[in-house]
Amino acid sequence: MNPPKGAARQHTDTRTSAPVRLEGRDKVTGTARYAAEYAPDGRVYAWPIPATIARGKIVAIDCGQALAEPGAIAVLTHENAPRLGETGDRTLAVLQTPGIAHRGQYVALAVAETLEAARATAAAVRVEYAPERHQVLPRPDHPDSHVLEEADDEAPEGWQRGDVEGAYAAAEIRIDAVYRIPALHNHPMEPHAATALWADGQLVVHDSSQGAGWVRQTLSELFGMDRDRITVVSEHVGGGFGSKGTTRPHAVLAAMAARHVGRPVTLALPRNQLAAVVGYRAATEQRLRIGAAADGRISALAHEVVSYHSTIGDFVEQAAKPARSMYASPHSRTSHRVGPLDVPPPSWMRAPGECSGMFALESAMDELAVACGIDPIELRIRNEPDRDPASGLPFSSRHLVECLREGARRFGWTPGPRRPGSRTEGGLLIGTGVAASTYSADVEPSEAEAHADASGNIRILLNATDIGTGARTILAQIAAEALDVPLDRVRIEIGSSDLPYAPIAGGSTGAASWGWAVHKAATALAAQLADRNIPLSEAGLRMAVNTEADVAARSAEYARRSFGAQFAEVQVDRDTGETRLRRLLGVFAAGRILNARTARSQFVGAMTMGASMALLEHSTMDPAFGDHPERDLASYHVAVSADVPDIQAYWIEEEDPHLNPLGVKGIGEIGIVGTAAAVANAVYDATGVRVRTLPVRVESLLPNLGAR
Amino acid sequence: MDRLSHATAVTLHVNGVPRDLVVDHRTTVLDALREHLDLTGAKKGCDHGQCGACTVLVGGRRMNSCLLLAVAQDGAEITTIEGLSEGGRLHPVQEAFLERDAFQCGYCTPGQICSAVGALEEMASGWPSAVTDPDRATDRDAEIRERMSGNICRCGAYVNIVAAVGDAGRHESPTAAAGRRAGQTAAAGTHAGQAADEPGEASR
Fold it and tell me: Cβ atoms within 10 A of the Cβ of A446, count?
């Protein structure tokens, strides 16, 4: 089912005929409401108080002065807060014990009549600690450091095929380099927020979440309630990028506070507290060793990652995993050495694993191309596997080579070995770089309902979440297409746990998982409608479906991933060392594209975040305080308009019959994978300086540029 | 409110309607809009003037409303995102944002749109920006990128935002722009000749 080579069509013009976002009008007029913007009668405000030590315990909390603040209602601490049930997520056991696992962990919550009073009440709470010595910097010799066993099939010595050490030692060309990525913060524009309300034994929470169903499940465990007594609504969500994928402490705190004070409570986290409590991309140190023949054919590839997790969370950035599937290498090894640290818990950030790992791998591939004196695109083509090297299974579709070739053509790539420093414009050094992208194409079971009424209107119901991806719009399109009705006949209801079950918006699985269920429900409804000759009764027709069996019945005989190629052009000022991005271009093979308008935004948006990672984003760990000092948007720089020039995204018209009935792979994450490597490779091409530590900064370049 | 010890009565003219409020002296214009007037279009992204999500027009100029105390704005004319469309008819900038898909999650969008309205006004009035070169023809996209850089969009819709602002600027009727400018002479006149990059304004 491979499409003709080079079948990508031009999709640069945003003015396509694809439908505009269904909720777009609400967003541009300011009427779309987010979690903190619901104001039930009697609603009051909460303000959290973070720990100021990295490890130890609370000795005393003095709330006297705080409760004397005008408007103060209560201060919740581990001494008076409602007791919570157990969940698998220890970050949610808020205000349960005096123990402190990281700086920024919540130790108390102020509740007051107004936002201003809540902040003042919080500021007046006095907490006395008994600090213990903390360890916040990764140490490979840490006694608890080990090779991760949970990283899919990773044995104590790592994941391995063949004899990597022998093959590496025997290789003609050897690359051995260490790449470093700092901690990176998700920082969605809407800080995490929840409005909670208890009434008649029911709990209703408006939560800024990527999955209201997940939040309902954890709240039911924490508060010991049946799920049907809880409603979680996430109708409009101001971005998440993984940080709202799991239940977060703010939702639990809001629900606790609302129960404690007997009134609805809104808790919107202050921006400068997010870095400690909503997860982040853990810093990684990644050693890449590649052994190859003189013609670039890889014989050995080892990707070894050192990182960390928190003492109250097991999440590990599995950066080495993509190296198992990217290139044909008979001898290969990946490992993750991690240990627990007294740091804020790392968690999901857009393309966890792939985003970090592909910076290292695709930089190393560029180094190999230089060492072999061949074109970096040609190098990748020479190492193209005929099946997935990790599993031995055929790819359901791959098309990486097509993406590279199509991208090269559109970008105007100059073939041949790189000639660093060969292109200048006055005092500017100009360079171009390329890198490959990949992300898993997974699917999860989902439910959906489709209703038809007597006048031919369609309602689609499922608890999907639109965090800005355009999910509402594509799901309505899928239904309209299956039922052969105009889009404006379809009303879609998502973002509430009262709706049929659906998995979270995460892992680029939404379009495939929710779309499959909507397609199934709408197709079944269409069949029912076609069988009838009489008009529908008032009640109409309803079809409820579940894709659990369909997903389980999917063939296990294929490896399913999306792929892509990214190209960057940069300029580096020879005198100041400043790097500016000139343009980015990506070509992706990600299955069927459902809406050219919103899909392009997903690709370009993720590439923008990748460019931001390459050149700007930088968080550090303060060893004395045990926290990230870069906690706000003035100290943690993300790209703004002036940093983002021309970014173009294209895609291969890929038809893959082995995915799901829609042929979609999911596109939320792949756009950030490889971007940083493309940029750093372009910097090398411009300057001859190999930057292996992100972000690319003046300090790395200036000493090596040579004065004019 | 009677429990608050430091409060003052003010009138904010919001979207053309006088709104009488007794505000806590700590209350920002942003919180006055969101928490007292139920105008939640202006967003709180950082509360520190670092992200631009709270941008509104005050006296026709764009401002970070999280950096303005309501008590200091007695009598101010404030236009929020809710006041840009008239009787269901979208403002040209809103139309352009829809057509160009210049947003994803929508949280920075009201601030981006208010900022764009202000920026187009500044450009039409001939106010220079940091990238304005008097000896060269105006690079309109570069001007828009520079002037819109006080508004962060973490979804990364900048390419589309710049296109949308460009479209809206082109489509805007010169008479309408001139009319609005004439109505704002008093506010704008005091700043004539200054660069647009000032503290408190939605630019970086």
Answer: 29
